[in-house]
Design a protein that fits this description.
It contains 16 helices and 23 strands. The protein is an alpha+beta fold. Strands 17-18-16-15-21-22-23 form a 7-stranded mixed β-sheet. The protein is globular and about 60 Å long. The N and C termini lie far apart (67 Å). The model has no long low-confidence stretch (mean pLDDT 94).
Length: 482
């Protein structure tokens, strides 16, 4: 009799990855398919939902073929998704009605300014700030700007939901949205874990176009892979999955994840903690239990260095930002690409330099970009400690952009130890753990072995000088008000 295995899909901003795990959660095989992100105008960031659906199904098929060559049976599937990416699609044919609006997309920023009087109530209800990056504003913007979308919604022909909902609907026929991603819609009540009637009215949303909200660990239906029908047992946000993969499952545990974007995440236990300027959300859930997190997001990490390639005229192969950041510099860069999310929540703006310009030595500009990510981590951690009263003793980092210079700078600027772990793909491992728990009763363990540790080493005078320069730059741009 063949041994069971698990297929995991990690659907990210620039690629979709497939993973094959055995029942002991050893990663056996992986592959990925890259896809495009389009920027048709400033503040607009879009992706092709059909392209992403096809990539998800293809990597599943690839993993199933690999499982067969190893005489393994695919027992279950789990999926992690980029969050805050929303679209409209046909109820009958599953066809996208327009490009999906990426989590990076800020086209609805102008619209939310007119709703600013509602911002405190919205955060109280949802746990997240009012911003154009989330689902409700994107829905309302589309309804007002696209007559075809408006007619389809009025006629009950279209669904609106997250990219995860679109893909799972196409895969299983069931239209659902898990709680961890529904939290990014700006429409789910964080206490009731269901659509909030007041917010649906505020964003002019008809509930019959929305998916049903379900736990992250749930039987979403079956997926046709090869000649088999395999249960889909977990769908969740990618950053939440990384926290589970890192083994940060106790209240107060902190982790960071850096890829195209970045995040600082804190396990808040079984009760939500709502802090202005940060995001309170579901970490993971089942029909029997629910766990929450507090999160600060950073919109541009790898995407910032990609932007620098064009700005500085450096080819992708020559960027090598890890080695370019080995030196020191005194300037400040405030990245406007995709806007700044936590803890300031701006729309997209022109990237600004202080003490640097396009004629500066390229490595110094790249180093300043890297430091801007560290400064935002510092600002997020400062809010966590002061507002949530959570002491940051150590942090664990994962993701493809968790490079040594960045992690050392974060340790220096926050005064906190930062570690990496032995396992590479924390998001996929987190989903695999939850699927194995659902399918086989496998306990959630304490996480992979710690590897490199970065300890604070910057002189206090230099640290204070850098933080002061960063905050002065934010004040000059009216991002920081005090």
């Amino acid at each position: 009799m063949s041994r069971p295995s698990i297929i995991v899909v990690d659907q990210g901003t620039s690629s979709t990855k497939g993973f094959l795990f055995n029942e002991s959660l050893k990663e056996l095989h992986t592959d990925k398919i890259r896809h495009t992100v389009n920027r048709p105008r400033r503040g607009w960031v879009e992706c092709d939902a059909d392209e992403i659906f096809n990539a998800c199904h293809t990597v599943m098929e690839q993993m199933a073929v690999e499982a067969n060559t190893r005489s393994l049976t695919v027992a279950a599937v789990g999926m992690a998704f980029q969050r805050s990416t929303f679209l409209f699609w046909g109820k009958d044919d599953g066809k996208p009605q327009a490009p999906a609006m990426s989590w990076q997309d800020s086209r609805a920023t102008g619209l939310v300014k007119n709703l600013s009087s509602e911002s405190a109530d919205i955060q109280r209800r949802t746990g997240i700030p009012l911003t154009g990056h989330f689902g409700g504003p994107k829905y309302l913007h589309s309804l007002r700007e696209d007559n075809a979308i408006k007619r389809g919604i009025e006629n009950g022909e279209f669904f609106f939901g997250s990219l995860s909902s679109f893909v799972t609907h196409r895969l299983t026929g069931s239209n659902t949205m898990d709680q961890s991603i529904a939290g990014r819609s700006l429409m789910m009540n964080i206490s009731a874990l269901d659509w909030d009637d007041h917010l649906l009215k505020l964003f002019e949303i008809k509930e019959n176009c929305l998916p049903s909200i379900v736990p992250t660990c749930h039987n979403f239906g079956t997926v046709s892979i090869g000649k088999s029908e395999v249960p889909l047992l977990c769908v969740m946000g990618d950053q939440q999955a990384s926290l589970i993969g890192q083994g940060r499952r106790e209240k107060g545990d902190v982790a960071m994840n850096f890829g195209t974007s970045g995040s600082v995440l804190v396990n808040c236990g079984k009760e939500p903690v709502v802090v202005p300027s940060l995001l309170s959300n579901v970490l993971f859930s089942s029909k029997d239990s629910i766990h929450f997190l507090l999160e600060g997001t950073i919109n541009s990490v790898a995407s910032l260095f990609k932007w620098l390639e064009g700005y500085l005229g450096i080819t992708h192969d020559d960027m090598n930002w890890e080695s370019r950041c080995s030196g020191e510099q005194d300037g400040i860069m405030v990245p406007g690409l995709n806007g700044i999310s936590a803890p300031y929540w701006t729309g997209e703006f022109e990237t600004q330099f202080f003490g640097l310009d396009q004629k500066s030595e390229p490595n110094k500009v790249v180093r300043a970009a890297m430091e801007s990510i560290g400064f935002l981590v510092y600002d997020i951690c400062n809010v966590i400690e002061k507002e949530a009263k959570i002491e940051l003793v150590d942090m664990v980092a994962s993701g493809g952009s968790s490079r040594a210079p960045l992690l050392q700078f974060i340790a220096d600027i926050t005064g906190t130890n930062v570690s990496t772990t032995a396992a590479k793909d924390m998001t996929a491992l987190g989903v695999a753990r939850l699927v194995a728990n659902s399918a086989f009763g496998t306990p959630l363990d304490s996480g992979p072995e710690r590897l490199e540790q970065f300890r604070p080493g910057m002189a206090p005078e230099l640290r204070d000088k850098k933080i002061s320069a960063w905050r002065n730059a934010l004040r000059k741009l009216s991002i920081l008000k005090n």
